[in-house]
Amino acid sequence: MVTRKTKLYPGSRKQARATAAIMQGTGKIRINKVPVEIFMPTVARQRILTPLVLSGDLRDKVDISVRVSGGGFMGQAEAAAMAISRALADWTRGQEIRRKISEFDVHLLSGDPRQPETKKFGGPGPRRRKQKSYR
Description:
The protein is of the alpha+beta class.
């Protein structure tokens, strides 16, 4: 049996968490065991493929498997894209891909710490309140 060396890379956005495993291969990308070519919706697929497009021909030399959970579909896409970009940047050990990804979107490597504001008492959401009438 042939053992393949893998390493895990995290990514997160809002409530979504992703873990990418990268190994030498032929360019197969899977999100939760589903090939990325049939991943829906299309907007999320394009966001996931962004770091692979920036990496160029490196995409055909590695296999990436991503497990993602929590949040909505766009948060999951952002988390998966972050995990993939971190994996590609570490796999190459060079500054070329890291620089390309950072120039395109700095949050693909460093993350985006923004979280939704929590609901408060006295209203239906974090900011809106019930109207008061004095007449």
